[in-house]
TrEMBL record:
Keywords: Iron, Metal-binding, Oxidoreductase, Peroxidase. Gene3D superfamilies: 1.10.520.10, Peroxidase, domain 2. SUPFAM superfamilies: Heme-dependent peroxidases (SSF48113). This is L-ascorbate peroxidase. Its cofactor is heme b. PROSITE patterns: PEROXIDASE_1 (PS00435), PEROXIDASE_4 (PS50873). Belongs to the peroxidase family. Ascorbate peroxidase subfamily. The keyword Membrane does not apply.
Length: 152
């Protein structure tokens, strides 16, 4: 719920939310998030094979990097991805296509999206069309948040 609210109050799309999912008694095992130093095959392994998400979902969810920043003590990387990390928009994709910019961070896993023949056209689409990004992001966010959820 916090992620849905954060996206919406920072200018992003309305993400469908279905209450009722029970919290897990234990945290999930380490390694469910992708390694930021790896490329597209790794992203597909983590999000596709493990979670059942599509290539479109992977790129759309990567756009969530438009919010926030990396913290060196947590990831080894430091800095925001976008000039205004408190606004949810398509600037992650425009910055990614624009190349390295002083003061902004792009992880190796972000840059790898540009080298993939399926991922890059989606990056270009979302950079040019914020509405398309918002629609695909909302769908992917909902799908990710409902992994393992079955209504009674």
């Amino acid at each position: 719920l916090a992620g849905v609210v954060a996206v919406e109050i920072t200018g992003g799309p309305d993400v469908p939310f279905h209450p009722g999912r029970k919290d897990a008694p234990e945290p999930p095992p380490e390694g469910r998030l992708p390694d930021a130093t790896k490329g597209c095959d790794h992203l597909r392994d983590v999000f596709g094979k493990t979670m059942g998400l599509s290539d479109k979902d992977i790129v759309a969810l990567s756009g969530g990097h438009t919010l926030g920043r990396c913290h060196k003590e947590r990831s080894g990387f430091e800095g925001p991805w976008t000039p205004n990390p408190l606004i949810f928009d398509n600037s992650y994709f425009t910055v990614l296509l624009g190349g390295d910019q002083e003061g902004l961070l792009m992880l190796p896993s972000d840059k790898a999206l540009l080298d993939d023949p399926v991922f890059r056209p989606l990056v270009e689409k979302y950079a040019a069309d914020e509405d398309a990004f918002f629609a695909d992001y909302a769908e992917a966010h909902m799908r990710l948040s409902e992994l393992g959820f079955a209504e009674a």
